[in-house]
């Protein structure tokens, strides 16, 4: 099993509770990797304070400082590449990324979304779920591809939807599961347990199927 200590950067736009949950599991020794930077598009993101408290460098790449999406994304790529991370973690990063950036980190960029994808992609997923009337909701951690909220699924966790729920109540219930699912997905990545075949993500058994571990369509995942 590949247990070499790796590095990751986190992109977050707001509160950063997922970022915190990931840091907590790193600090508890459950993820064999370290966070080398927080990168945010929002100079007011509370995630910045969390990074400060954890001694993690912060880079603000604010969308409005750039004339267009292309130059914004070039700056974002430079900010990420400065750290040469094994993994890019989108933890409440609220911008849709273009093809240049997504293809650059194919197989090593993951996102969390507060629905059981492919249901309810896009914004306000929890409200969408309540309005639709589903009885089960949840969260999805997935590899990022060019299509929004549509990449290969790593982990999903479900919660019930109760009569009387609104978007906020459901969001809180889902968030609790996000804080379990996201660190677990990152742990699996850094312990070399994930492999991708087409759009299927498998969790390999290092004893029974060592040849699959850490492969992306047959190539090394990181
Ligand atoms: C989380 O619920 C996450 O799933 C969602 O934003 C929230 C961020 O919370 N992400 C998306 O909707 C991405 N499409 P946090 O800042 O406390 O981690």
Question: Roughly what is the average pLDDT, rounded to an integer?
Answer: 95
What's the alpha carbon Rg, rounded to whole Å? 17 Å
The residue fraction in helices comes out at 25-40%
- The helix/strand series, from N terminus to C terminus, equals EHEHEHEHEHEEHEEEE
Count of domains = 1
Overall morphology: globular
Oligomer: single chain
**Kindly, what is the distance between the CA atoms of the first and last residues, rounded to a whole number of angstroms?**
14 Å
Q: Uncertain runs with pLDDT below 50, 5 residues or more?
A: none
* The CATH H-level homologous superfamily: Formyl transferase, N-terminal domain
- The assigned CATH architecture is 3-Layer(aba) Sandwich
Structural account:
This protein has 222 residues and is an alpha/beta fold. It has one domain: Rossmann fold (3-Layer(aba) Sandwich), CATH 3.40.50.170. The protein is built from six helices and eleven strands. Strands 3-2-1-4-5-6-7 form a seven-stranded mixed beta sheet, with helices on both faces. A two-stranded antiparallel sheet has the order 8-9. Strands 10-11 form a two-stranded antiparallel ribbon. It is globular and about 45 Å long. The two termini are 14 Å apart. Bound molecules: glycinamide ribonucleotide. The site of glycinamide ribonucleotide (GAR) has 13 residues, from helix 1, strand 5 and helix 6.
């Amino acid at each position: 099993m590949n247990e070499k200590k790796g590095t990751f950067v986190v992109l977050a736009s707001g509160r950063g509770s997922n970022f915190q949950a990931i840091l907590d599991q790193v600090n508890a020794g459950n993820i064999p990797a370290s966070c080398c930077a927080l990168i945010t598009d929002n100079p007011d993101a509370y995630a910045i304070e969390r990074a400060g408290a954890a001694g993690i460098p912060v880079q603000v790449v604010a969308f409005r400082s750039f004339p267009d999406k292309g130059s914004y994304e070039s700056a974002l790529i430079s900010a990420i590449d400065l750290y040469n991370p094994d993994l890019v973690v989108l933890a409440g990063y609220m911008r849709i990324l273009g093809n240049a950036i997504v293809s650059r980190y194919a197989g090593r960029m993951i996102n969390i979304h507060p629905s059981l994808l492919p249901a309810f992609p896009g914004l306000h997923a929890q409200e969408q779920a309540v309005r639709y009337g589903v009885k089960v909701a949840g969260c999805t951690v997935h590899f990022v591809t060019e299509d929004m909220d549509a990449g290969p699924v790593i982990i999903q966790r479900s919660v019930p939807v109760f009569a009387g729920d609104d978007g906020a109540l459901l969001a809180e219930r889902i968030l609790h599961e996000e804080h379990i699912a996201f660190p677990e997905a990152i742990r699996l990545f850094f312990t070399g347990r994930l492999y991708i075949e087409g759009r299927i993500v498998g969790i390999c058994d290092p004893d029974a199927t060592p040849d699959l571990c850490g492969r992306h369509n047959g190539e090394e995942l990181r």
